[in-house]
Design goal:
246 residues, alpha+beta, 3 domains, three-stranded antiparallel β-sheet, 6 strands, elongated
Amino acid sequence: MESTQSYQSWDELIILGAYASFAIAILILLYHELRLVLIKDLKEKYDYINLHEITYFWYAIIALIIAAALYSNAMVARVFDVKGTTGVIVRVFYTLGFSAIAYISLSSLVRILYPRVVERRLQKVRNKPRLSPAGNPMRKLSEEEEDVHLEQDQIDQESSDIHSVDYDVWIDEKTGYKKIEKYMAYQHAEECSECGFVTSKIINEEIEVKPTVNETGLLLKHYRCTYCRHREAKEVIIAKLSSNVK
């Protein structure tokens, strides 16, 4: 009788642990979304999403895995009435096996599918109309228009294939207020030539041949896929130096 009550007490604690893990998962997601709400500047919001969204989402997934493993452990034990030392061993191995399978399955989901969700969210934030300090809606300039508002070094950075940089220029046409936002294009994933998922990122760049006034240069970009671990290098031609570059 005491043994049965003891197992029931453990099951109740396990179920409470499952509920707690589920609550932690929800709190992680709510914390992330709350921080996004509190960030008013859209460029800062973009950078926060780019740096942290997948990490917080993964933490929430792990908490959900733990919750599911604990809850199913208690339910399976009740259905099959496993007790004693053998029952404890079975339940431990079941929990570990369930967690491992769920981790492997969901890690693929996070690494393969969720980056697409993040990229769509980033583009939405990047293109969302800005407001100037005067409260007027700002217009995002086209590539042809923005060069007039950029410094020469910024134009050179945009045109360079080394550590690709992109600038967005927003202007309040009523007051003339201008805002320039810098985006590091090389930080974003590309489609992997091996597995086909958008999980390949630049890990290193090196100049094989330096460009001169008369000759183009050669840049080697090294990629690594975060899913299938495929590595490859791509050659990029570097434009000739302009004649006024010393």
